[in-house]
Write a sequence for this structure.
């Protein structure tokens, strides 16, 4: 788990704001107040590496984004494969983890990239959250107040798109949403983008997720613009298709560009 | 407040209000009632969007209590109804309004259960419901999704729940169970019937011929609450899923989008079944669910060729020897063989194939080993030898061989060039095709080009002409060929079955000889082989009898045919008749052509032709007459009537039948048939009858009858009149009986 040396902010212990992601050129220059944004949610097993990399990428492009883990506990690599560092979700902050590991063996956790990762994470939000404990619709105003990156727009506690980073996370998310009973009557697209759990793959996967997000948001903005004034009955052809209808096609196109990141999709309910 | 000029400012204010309620749910009643006039039916799209969205959020919010929502509901319903009635056309507004309605429906239903007098609210709710149900199918997909969710809510509310406590309805979730039987607005049977219909409508998405993955996935994902809490309909829902095979509900072309759709539907259906199974391992439908999951996983295997499914190998060119980033194959890098240069000196097969530098090994004579030991060593060795090692060795030998060939070609070229042009006269291309190409080019071409020339210069290979066949050999082969055709005849007979007769009947005169591959076709072929093919090739019958010819192929076929017919003369009578007709026809043609060939000046040399017909008709008769019994009248009559010509030898042979007292009638009746129906042969047959009458005592009653009728003035009749007078009257019945038989 060597931390990606290409990252500009890697290897520095001094906190510094996350750099604008390489894809920052894609960020729409529109005034966020009147530009429509889909709300995203990224999910991986421990809400540390892959989901947080994607969280960084998406929030860097001013998308509203929240992130979760589906595991029962947060597991980080330890001195050996049988001695992982285990933390509870929702109650342990990234900062706590950082301080603890820093105290335990700074050299080890620096060299395997864990400290750098936690450092990045603690600048994005307070701590890892468990997906199964999330109650959709509970306002997340406090997250905004705490300065979580990507919190703007997610105050209502709902998201339009969930992107998981592993198939079993997707299974867990879909299953959990079924159990939650879809009380909000709010549709949500659940994607999986299969990313291996290492820093390099997380970085490329995060960029791919950002690309997917941009494509989806583009379609949603189009829907708002096209149907905004004349109404859907006046559109023609593809323009008449709503955002939701375009999703399978968008994913198929995206998949052709990223054949190494096998994707899955469904429409679930919050 | 509604007159605020700038929409942007208004939205900002509204957002501030939203922030307020998100921070403290206690402000909701105040804010909701406050915004309703601003975002109502008559306002701008931006405001309607914001309002609809806010209402959906409000009534979905888990932080706002049920009672507060219930209190807010009546006013909101009025607004929603008005906006829907516009009619609203914006997708976002519609989506939010349907979402809000889905959240409101259980609330309002519960409110009405407890407040039967509030008919206005119920009226509004029903109006909204009807509006949604009516327009659902015309809405864009995004709205349809939310409509499906609305349906689910209505079905959930209007179905009986399980495990509720009717004594404490306030603790139960909203369902039909909380409706009092005597409710003034809510009629349980009507509601139940409606929900049943709506459930069918909801599940109808699984019966569409072409599935919309969006709707299917959304529907599957909203089913778990129904399955979990509504046992009365759970079975029906699960069955609908089990009958739904996503791959059957798509149409080609299978674009990436369609593949994404199928995969998503399969995975979503699987997720639902797992969700059910996890909660109840002993579900009555568990075996079917597991079978379905199994089937889905198989169908996904079928689609496994889809390159997008699996993480492929890295795209960069993989150098098998680049240790830094090599794909993990189950193999070591192929060991490189060291190929020593070929031993100097003249090229031998030994040196060509020697790939080792070990002097001891290369001088070892393998021939010393017994063959079976070599086999024992070589077979296991071959199975263990590494593919690439084998390929390298073969390649090495091939390279060596090509080098040698090239050198030899060059040498030969040089020799020919030094020999000069005069050699060309003796040049035989058949024998040295390789040289032909080299000389033709006449250029000292580069070695590589020469090599390329080698292939085409080999030329086409022509088999040498076989030595001419002797007459005996030719005859032998001809007989073998004929025997082979006879083989077909018996084979066709064995496999023919009843279809043969039918086909023949159908074709009738339109039949073409040999056009089918049945027995008749093969026999026609044989017959014509015998009669026509060698016609005129036979030596003249008056040729020198000392050089008496061998039996010709035609004769051998005839002989075989003869034996073939006699083997089963009753069944193969038609072949015999066909054959004899052909023979007769051939004889005629032969006679005609012989007459035409006759030299008019040479009167003495009468052209003669061998008459096959007489020979073979007599042989055939001799062959089978002995085997005819008294009841074979049909066989004999058919034969006699269908052969082309009746001759005296034939009638004599028939007459001989009368020797046997049992076959007298056979003889007389067949002759009588010929007398009656074969006019040219009448006289001949009457004469025969007379002979029979005179010769055989037993034939007299029958023969006399015939003679009396056809030759009443016969002399033989008078001579023997007296002794037979008494027997005569008994005969008249016999004649019509015979005639009828024909």
């Amino acid at each position: 788990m060597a931390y990606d040396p290409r990252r500009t902010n890697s290897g520095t212990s001094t906190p510094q704001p996350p750099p604008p992601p390489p894809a920052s050129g894609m960020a729409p220059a529109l005034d966020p107040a009147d530009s429509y944004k889909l709300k995203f949610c990224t999910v991986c097993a421990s809400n540390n590496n892959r989901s947080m990399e994607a969280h960084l990428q998406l929030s860097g492009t001013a998308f509203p984004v929240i992130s979760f883990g589906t595991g029962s506990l947060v597991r980080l690599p330890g001195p050996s494969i049988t001695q992982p560092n285990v933390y509870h979700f929702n109650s342990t902050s990234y900062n706590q983890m950082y301080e603890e590991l820093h105290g335990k063996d700074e050299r080890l956790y620096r060299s395997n990239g864990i400290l750098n990762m936690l450092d990045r994470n603690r600048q994005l939000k307070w701590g890892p959250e468990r997906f199964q404990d999330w109650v959709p619709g509970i306002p997340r105003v406090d997250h905004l107040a705490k300065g979580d990156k990507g919190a703007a727009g997610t105050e209502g506690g709902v998201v339009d798109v969930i992107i998981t980073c592993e198939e079993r996370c997707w299974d867990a998310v879909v299953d959990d949403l079924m159990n939650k009973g879809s009380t909000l009557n709010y549709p949500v697209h659940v994607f999986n983008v299969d990313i291996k759990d290492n820093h390099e793959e997380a970085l490329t996967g995060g960029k791919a997720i950002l690309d997917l997000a941009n494509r989806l948001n583009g379609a949603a903005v189009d829907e708002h613009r096209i149907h905004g004034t004349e109404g859907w009955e006046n559109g023609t052809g593809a323009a008449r298709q709503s955002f939701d209808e375009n999703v399978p096609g968008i994913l198929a196109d995206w998949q052709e560009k990223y054949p190494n990141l096998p994707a899955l999709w469904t429409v679930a309910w919050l | 407040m509604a007159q605020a000029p700038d929409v942007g400012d208004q939205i900002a204010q509204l957002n501030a209000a939203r922030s307020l309620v998100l921070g403290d749910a206690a402000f909701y009643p105040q804010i909701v009632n406050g915004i309703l006039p601003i975002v109502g039916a008559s306002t701008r799209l931006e405001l309607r969007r914001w309002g609809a969205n806010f209402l959906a959020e409000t009534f979905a919010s888990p932080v706002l209590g049920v009672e507060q929502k219930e209190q807010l509901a009546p006013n909101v319903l009025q607004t929603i109804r008005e906006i829907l009635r516009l009619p609203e056309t914006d997708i976002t507004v519609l989506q939010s309004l349907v979402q809000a309605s889905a959240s409101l429906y259980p609330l309002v239903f519960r409110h009405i259960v407890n407040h039967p007098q509030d008919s206005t609210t119920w009226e509004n709710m029903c109006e909204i419901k009807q509006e949604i149900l009516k327009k659902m199918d015309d809405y864009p997909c995004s709205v349809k999704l939310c409509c499906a969710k609305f349906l689910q809510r209505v079905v959930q509310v209007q179905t009986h729940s399980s495990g509720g406590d009717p004594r404490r309805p306030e603790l139960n979730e909203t369902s039909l169970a909380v409706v009092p039987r005597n409710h003034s607005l809510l009629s349980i049977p009507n509601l139940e019937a409606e929900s049943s219909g709506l459930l069918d409508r909801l599940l109808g998405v699984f019966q569409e011929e072409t599935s919309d993955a969006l709707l299917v996935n959304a529907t599957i994902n909203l089913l778990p609450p129904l399955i979990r809490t509504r046992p009365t309909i759970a079975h029906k829902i699960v069955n609908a899923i089990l009958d739904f095979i996503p791959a059957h509900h798509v149409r080609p072309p299978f674009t990436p989008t369609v593949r994404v759709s199928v995969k998503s539907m399969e995975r979503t259906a699987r997720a639902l079944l797992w969700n059910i199974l996890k909660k109840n391992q002993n579900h009555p439908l568990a075996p079917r669910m597991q079978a379905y999951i199994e089937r889905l996983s198989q169908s996904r295997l079928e689609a496994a060729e889809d390159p997008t499914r699996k993480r492929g190998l890295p795209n960069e060119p993989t150098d098998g020897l680049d240790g830094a980033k090599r794909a993990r194959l189950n193999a070591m890098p192929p060991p490189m063989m060291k190929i020593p240069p070929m031993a100097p000196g003249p090229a031998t097969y030994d040196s060509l194939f020697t790939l080792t530098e070990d002097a001891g090994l290369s001088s070892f004579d393998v021939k010393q080993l017994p063959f079976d030991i070599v086999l024992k060593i070589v077979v296991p060795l071959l199975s263990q030898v590494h593919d690439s090692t084998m390929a390298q060795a073969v390649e090495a030998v091939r390279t060596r061989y090509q080098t040698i060939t090239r050198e030899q070609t060059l040498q030969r070229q040089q020799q020919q060039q030094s020999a000069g042009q005069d050699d060309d006269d003796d040049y035989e291309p058949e024998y040295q095709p390789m040289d032909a190409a080299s000389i033709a080019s006449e250029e000292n071409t580069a070695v590589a080009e020469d090599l390329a020339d080698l292939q085409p210069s080999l030329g086409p290979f022509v088999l040498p002409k076989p030595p001419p066949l002797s007459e005996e050999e030719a005859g032998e082969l001809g007989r073998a060929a004929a025997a082979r055709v006879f083989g077909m005849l018996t084979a066709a007979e064995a496999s023919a079955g009843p279809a043969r007769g039918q086909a023949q009947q159908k074709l009738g005169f339109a039949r073409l000889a040999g056009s089918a591959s049945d027995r008749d076709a093969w026999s026609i072929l044989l017959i014509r082989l015998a009669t026509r093919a060698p016609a005129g090739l036979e030596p003249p019958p008056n040729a020198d009898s000392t050089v008496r010819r061998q039996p010709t192929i035609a004769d051998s076929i005839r002989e075989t045919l003869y034996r073939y017919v006699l083997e089963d003369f009753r069944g193969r009578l038609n072949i015999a008749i066909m054959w004899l007709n052909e023979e007769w026809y051939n004889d005629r043609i032969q006679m005609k052509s012989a007459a035409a060939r006759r030299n008019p000046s040479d009167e003495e040399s009468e052209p003669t032709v061998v008459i096959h017909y007489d020979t073979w008709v007599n042989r055939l008769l001799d062959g089978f007459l002995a085997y005819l019994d008294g009841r074979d009248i049909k066989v004999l009559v058919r034969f006699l009537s269908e052969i082309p010509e009746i001759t005296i030898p034939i009638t004599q042979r028939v007459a001989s039948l009368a020797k046997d007292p049992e076959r007298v009638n056979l003889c007389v009746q067949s002759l009588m048939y010929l007398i009656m129906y074969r006019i040219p042969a009448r006289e001949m047959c009457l004469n025969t009858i007379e002979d029979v009458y005179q010769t055989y005592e037993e034939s007299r009653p029958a023969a006399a009858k015939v003679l009396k009728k056809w030759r009443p003035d016969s002399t033989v009749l008078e001579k023997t009149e007296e002794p037979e007078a008494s027997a005569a009257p008994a005969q008249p019945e016999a004649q019509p009986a015979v005639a009828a038989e024909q």
In short: The radius of gyration of chain B is 53 Å. DSSP finds 33 helices and no strands in chain B. Chain B has a mean pLDDT of 78. Residues 224 and 275 of chain B are 8 Å apart (CA to CA).
